[in-house]
Amino acid sequence: MRVGVTREQRAGERRVAATPETVQQLTALGLDVVVEKGAGDESGYSDAAYKEAGATIAAKLALGALDVLVHVRPLSPATAKALKKGAVTIGLASPSTELPTVAALAAGKVTAFALELIPRISRAQSMDALSSQALVAGYRAVIEAVMRYPRFFPLYMTAAGTIPPAKVLVLGAGVAGLQAIGTAKRLGARVSANDIRAASADEVRSMGGTFINLDLDTAAEGTGGYAKELAEDRAKRQRDLLAPHVAASDILITTAAIPGRAAPLLVTTYMVKGMRAGSVVIDLAAESGGNVEGVVAGADTPVAVDGGTVTLVGLQDAPSAIPSDASRLYAKNVANLLAIMTADGTVSPDYSDEVVAGACLTRDGTVVHEPTANALAQS
Amino acid sequence: MRVGVTREQRAGERRVAATPETVQQLTALGLDVVVEKGAGDESGYSDAAYKEAGATIAAKLALGALDVLVHVRPLSPATAKALKKGAVTIGLASPSTELPTVAALAAGKVTAFALELIPRISRAQSMDALSSQALVAGYRAVIEAVMRYPRFFPLYMTAAGTIPPAKVLVLGAGVAGLQAIGTAKRLGARVSANDIRAASADEVRSMGGTFINLDLDTAAEGTGGYAKELAEDRAKRQRDLLAPHVAASDILITTAAIPGRAAPLLVTTYMVKGMRAGSVVIDLAAESGGNVEGVVAGADTPVAVDGGTVTLVGLQDAPSAIPSDASRLYAKNVANLLAIMTADGTVSPDYSDEVVAGACLTRDGTVVHEPTANALAQS
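YS: structure for the whole thing
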């Protein structure tokens, strides 16, 4: 069966859904891999390397001839329509925001797997692209802060005096937040963090951070390990309790995202104005509206404070800033999912497997992911 | 006596020679401090903060009325000429490249102290601006590499596989090199280093690096702890021995500078071409000609290699990239030197002090630093 690897089209996207390493993995399963020319250029994987790994290179993918298409960003409706009936797609599908593509996939009887829907169970961890890419984003968030911060991160004791370490506050202690904590800690910063899930306190501490307890009365734990939304009055209370911690930090990194929804507002402009000049705020949720008031995705916004400015960074495409390793992990996630559906060179999803069933978005002309089906019905 | 703090004029220079902290130190010595309006804007020290610390703010410094002028970058000949007879200047003077300014300082009977000439003895460490700024530059060199590197620095063991740590090679293990080693190590990289001074092997190891021994037959130790130039045939042999280490590294940071001279060529284009695609080379000596062939100060140059490019970075104004803490250390260096020349509110250099005598560039109409006097005589 023929597996196509697309060259990503979206501006700013530098990742690729297969690497020479996963091409080897897939060809060993008996699959033929076709890589679109230049698909790995931006992430450092050359056509020659794919070829050497056993792939063929196509100037353009013949979409109608593919049995499987692997991708990073959601497909366009046009690409979805060009696929043959029964073709399998694997990639990030962002079903809640890409309904026209979902409709086209269903109409074309394409079997689409959305990596966002991979169940968060331990057997599926090696296919969990949200986690692998959040790891990259969390690391990168700290690097972006270090670049813009006019002071050191570590403590320095020098002949000309002692420079104290930077104080970093991380809001949201999921995979990205925990990686941000660990990376800032490596660089010698003093790190504290908060998450509305009480369970995260131990994880924060295990990465070397200090957990900030906010007295919000109840724990908020969503299904599948994600945080659920707080009622508005509790959100207000949360902001009031966070304000002094924000004011005391030199670096603020926010990572609170709710899949398929607008990001919760955690930090107001008033709170940012309490920070000292030179401080840096990195909002990893900027693409879904932001955790910080006034953030602009893909841009730096100066916020005037006493004696200078605070830089508010709307981080966009964070994994694409480390495209080589982000692709390496992503491609493994894709290949691992494809592997559990493949036997003797044939891709044949077994829906009695909860991972396969859970990740499936469309098949046989039906949108099988219920929330997406409901959203489509209402649109 | 009146001490003026200039607003730096050179493009790209964001530091300032005094901070509110050192203004307090100087006023406590009985000195009047005048800060040029906006002098600390770029480094995060506001006019209001200087005022609060006891300084007055002047729209423009009245140069002829100053007893002392503190600065970061070398003065222009015009500024030197505007100073009164007997005025004291303290700052980086780069005497070998700024002969017209040196001549103007001598002609005007200005007493100029060059921080580059501070003796490298332990009592003078707190005034050693070359060291304090090299510390900033070494830290920054790593951050600039991390920003451009398409992979992680640390080892990551994830559900989707293990990512090995970046391999960092540092050439030149002075203050900047040692800080680069320490910072790369903090970030989880595997670090090795070389310096032609055999004595640096222990320092490299103390920062967590592996010292690379090159069999160059003899040790090269210059006066005052700086490396002296290698004869050309030995330099060639050094490059041959380094080539495999360069090829094996993902990140190369070069820091070999000889004060007042062109930087030695350590790495040829041929050697860079041995590195794998995506690798990053940071040349901290770019401003003095570079340690790496083809480097352009202030620019990124892609070098084509098998399967992609290596990015060759001519780092310029590295301390100005962390202007707040770089200024903090620099201003302390300046204030500490001024302090040992000040008693009862009067600045009166005592040339029986080897630090004061060593740092003096011009006084009473004479260029007292011999190499500079010789260079002027020959110009």
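YS: worth flagging: Residues 67 and 356 of chain B are 17 Å apart (CA to CA).
IM: good catch. Also Chain B has two domains: 2-128+323-365, 137-320.
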